[in-house]
Amino acid sequence: MTQDAMIDEWYPVGLVSQLDSFGRKTALMGEPIDVASDADGNARVTANGRTLPVCVRYGHVWSSLGQPQKELFAIPEADQPGRRFVDVGVVRVRCSPLRAVENFLDIAHFPFVHTDILGSEPHTEVQNYKVEIREDADEVWATQVKFYQPQAARSASGGITTEYMYRVPAPTCSVLYKTCPPRPGEWDVITLFVQPLAEDLCDVWPWMALFDDESSMTDLIHFQQTIFLQDRSILENQIPRLLPLDPGMEIPTRADLTSVAYRRWLKRHGYTYGAQLVAQ
Amino acid sequence: MLSDPTGSWTPVALSVDLPPGTVVPARTPAGPIALWRSASGRPSASADRCPHRGMRLSHGFVRGETLSCIYHGWSYGAAGNCLRIPAHPGLSPPETIRVATHPVEEAGGVIWVGVGEPATQPPQLAGLVPLRSLQAQAGMAALEAAAGAKADENGLLETTQNSQEIRLLLAFQERDETLIHVLLDGDSSLLERIAVSRAVEALRRKAEAIEAEGSSR
Amino acid sequence: MKLYNYILSPSCYKVRLMAALIGVRLELRPVDFHPGGEHRGPELMALNPAGSIPILEDGDLVLTESSAILVYLAAKAAPEWLGSGKAEEAARVQQWLSFSGRLTASLGGARLHEMLLRPGDIGAFQAQGIAALRELEAGLFEQGLRGQRFLAADRPTVADIACFPYVALAPDGGVSLDPYPAIRLWSRAIRALDGFIEMPGIHRLHELKPEPHIEPGEA
Ligand SMILES: N[C@H](CCC(=O)N[C@@H](CS)C(=O)NCC(=O)O)C(=O)O
Ligand code: FES
Predict the structure, then answer these.
(1) Per the record's keyword annotation, is Oxidoreductase included, yes or no (chain A) (predicted)?
(2) Are both C64 and C143 inside the same structural domain?
(3) Distance CA B40, CA A29 (A)
(4) Once rounded to an integer, what is the mean pLDDT over residues B21-33?
(5) Does residue B52's CB lie within 6 angstroms of at least one atom of ligand 2?
(6) Are residues A190 and A83 in the same domain?
(7) CATH classification at residue A59
(8) pLDDT tens, B124-166?
(9) Which end of chain C is more exposed for a tag (fewer CB within 10 A), N or C?
(10) To test ligand 2's pocket by mutation, which of B53, B57, B68 has the most ligand atoms within 8 angstroms of CB?
């Protein structure tokens, strides 16, 4: 598999808050890169002496090995007053970057993997929801996703039925909007930004924009790290490591319509870094 | 591994290491399996991959007579058919959703899994009882070299280590990895059992040193 | 009693688990270990110059070694977790409490490297981790021959709690637990204890609950 159409995309490569002049040695799609701050304190990303495009947004430094055709996708809530922005920090996972995103789009695993937090038996049913590929924005969207949750957020006390919207604006990034317990009518924003190190290895950078005046920043970080670390042991044990894009290898049901749309969208764009095309 | 033209049996685990209501990972020449025992005591073997989203079934859980996947809770019967999809409680899963299964035979405290359709039964280990299983980062050849003896066609090997008589049942895992089942007389004392177990650990160290030397050359 | 706690730290989890099993209430003070590195900041360094967590504060007493914290909790609330005090059992408890430090250094080092990108010699961490797991496997096998399901006795002691977390989380550091049947049975026995709590990376034993009967539309 080649770096293909995904080469011109933006990827997260570090936290802005942790930039320093020593630099962070990391990788992007198999190529070693260096993320540092220059003499003026600006982010600078280099690969083998070559300077790469840089963008600083949503608490992270973003870069690309190719020539990004578009600006980084917008998250309007990132500019909304009253929200708290949470840098959750990096977690490395030995899995395909695409598998990490697909897991983030899935709710059916909540009762078994995030037991008593995001789901619990017997509340396992996934009701019908809407999925579309929005042609104007070229994004995958799932809306009207509802699920019963024992502890939906750090600030929640007791079980509620939570509503979700999911959005995939870039092949390795997803943004989720979720009912916000302290502020009915608003949505909490939780993102998963994935840095593809290799086809079967990624650094995951969750980030959040929340309405929550009660919890400490550390509590908010710990809540999201708890959730993601419960997923990690699943992601490292899926076979095959790469995401199968051809039907036949895995069996979706109605609950998996977001994943089906995500796979179709990846295939349509030739976003196949981390994917497996032919059933093996 | 006992082969005949139609298939083979692999001793994958000891009965005591698979209590009712549990699932463990194991390996056969045909690939990894989830080996599980139902609450009523029946052992089964399935491919170690859930057909839904590829999660290893050996990470799952056993309730009653079914094996469930840890990821989304899909459950499977001993015949490999999917019985339940928790996300869709009203749905009877179609017949087409199933995991591949393998024949299982349990005799004398050893669980054997068949690949293909073996025409014969697994071998009897007359008079011997299994003690424990351990894995060596060493191939069959290195283990035979360390033991100074050859395994027979059933994988049985006899040797003396630190003046301790030991009998092993070997199962191929990978070129440089072997599963060792330690066997002994049923009437051995506690001290004898401990001595045999330690002697086999010594043999494993020796075999792994031989393997490491072989592969660094 | 106040525990300086990080939700992903296996060493802090030892303390939370022990407290849950014996019904001791802890006041948790969350520490931004990652990404913040708060354990190396002035406030926590003043409490523990070693720059590690857990730290337990109870009045004047400050404890910075998880094994000592387990012993403290057990001695106060549930002395049976210290073992019967017979010579051999007391020695086994100490043997495995000391051994648990090797699990932290090896399997814990591998986990920090593979998961949170800590520098270090991953090959050495993993090799030492496997060596430690083999010793534990042999120890548990021999205990089984003596009719004892746990490390020092036929009931769990502080030694089991000191060893369990890094072992159960070994796969986080790229060390497989597949080859260890005795460890698997022991780990299951611990996870099935009354009052057991999980941490991320250790899943619920769903089989302890009966299969729910669900009518569609009910959920
Ligand atoms: N004092 C030891 C230390 C435990 C330990 O290593 N804790 C880790 C967190 S899991 C730590 O604080 N490490 C310091 C660091 O890595 O900077 C204990 O209580 O067992
Ligand atoms: S992967 Fe097994 S139930 Fe979904």
Answers:
(1) yes
(2) no
(3) 50
(4) 96
(5) yes
(6) yes
(7) 2.20.25.680
(8) 888 899 999 999 999 999 999 999 999 999 999 999 987 888 9
(9) N
(10) B53
Measured by CA distance, the residue closest to atom 13 of ligand 1 is C52
Taking phi first (over 0 means left), then psi (-120 to 50 degrees means alpha), and beta for anything else, what does residue B31 get?
left
Cβ of A127 under 8 Å from any chain B Cβ? no
Measured CA to CA, the distance from residue C36 to residue A221 in angstroms comes to: 10
- Per-residue pLDDT band at A259 (split at 50, 70, 90): very high
Q: Over the stretch C140-163, which tens digit does the pLDDT of each residue have?
A: 999 999 999 999 999 999 999 999
User: How would you list the strands of the sheet with B75-76, edge to edge?
Assistant: B61-63, B66-68, B75-76, B82-84
d(CA B12, CA B122): 12
A33 and A89 share one domain: no
Q: Among A72, A98, A120, identify where a domain stops.
A: A72
Q: What's the one-letter identity of residue B170? A: L
Q: Which of A118, A234, A236, A242 to mutate to test binding with chain B, by most B CBs within 10 Å of its CB?
A: A234
The pLDDT value recorded for residue C219 is: 45
8 Å CB contact of C7 and A226: yes
Rounded CA-CA distance A125/C10 in Å is: 33
Q: B134 to chain C, minimum CA–CA distance in Å?
A: 7
Return the CATH number at C72: 3.40.30.10
Q: Give C4-43 as a DSSP string.
A: EE-TT-HHHHHHHHHHHHHT---EEEE---TTT-GGGSHH
How many angstroms separate the CA atoms of C158 and C161, rounded? 5
Counting the structural domains of chain A, the total is: 2
In ligand 2, the atom with minimum distance to the C-alpha of A108 is: 4
β-strands B101-102, B82-84 pairing: unpaired
pLDDT of B217 higher than 70: no
3-state secondary structure A83-95: CEEEECCCEEECC
Q: Does A18 touch chain C (CB under 8 A)?
A: yes
Inform me whether the pLDDT recorded for C30 exceeds 80: yes
Short-list A105, A14, A117, CA closest to A56: A14
Range of the domain at C28: 2-80
This prediction has a pTM of: 0.96
In a domain, C216, yes or no: no
Q: How far is B1 from chain A (nearest CA, A)?
A: 26
Report yes or no on C219 lying in a domain: no
Q: Which residues of A128-156 are buried (b: 16+ CB within 10 A; e: fewer)?
A: ebebeeeeeeebbbbeebbbbbbbbbbbb
Q: How do residues C31-45 score in pLDDT, each as one tens digit?
A: 999 999 999 999 999
Complex-level ipTM beyond the 0.90 threshold: yes
User: Where does a domain end: C80, C113, C146?
Assistant: C80
Same domain, C71 and C100: no
Contact yes or no for B194 and C142 at CB 8 A: yes
Q: Which residue of B has its CA nearest to A255?
A: B87
pLDDT of residue B126: 81
Task: Indicate if A130 and A9 belong to the same structural domain.
Answer: no
- Is residue C217 very low, low, confident or very high in pLDDT (cuts 50, 70, 90)? low
Neighbours of B73 (CB within 10 A): 24
Range of the domain at A17: 1-72
Q: Are B144 and B150 in contact (CB under 8 A)?
A: yes
Asked if residue A3 has pLDDT above 70, the reply is no
In chain B the domains, ranked by start, together with CATH numbers, are 2-116 (2.102.10.10), 128-215 (no CATH)
Nearest to A184 by CA among A158, A162, A217, A159: A162
Report whether A118 contacts A110 (CB < 8 A).
Answer: yes
Same domain, C8 and C99: no
